[in-house]
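Here comes an entry:

___
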Amino acid sequence: MLEMEELEQTIMQLIIYGGNAKSDAMLAIEAAKKGDLKTADEQIKLADDALLEAHHSQTALIQGEARGDRTEVSLLLVHAQDHLMNAITFKDLAKEIVELYRAK
């Protein structure tokens, strides 16, 4: 079982990387609205990178469960997972919005 401090650190990484990804995706939309598609693409790439880091943290939890190390489910963990899923959805939508601006 993960130590409480280690679990909290992993949870915070999910929240931070998810928040960074969502912010980067929003910046991509703002850049596309201004016609700066190069910056928009760069921001989408940053969002993807942040989500990859979050995925690494999430994978560590899943692998622990697979080994039989139970993770205590807390409201904070549920919040982190929710935050991450929202960031993934937001990034996917931002990517589509950038493509719509590109097609103009």
The chain has a mean pLDDT of 94. The chain has one domain: 1-103. The two ends are 53 Å apart (CA to CA). Helices lie at 4-33, 37-66, 75-103.
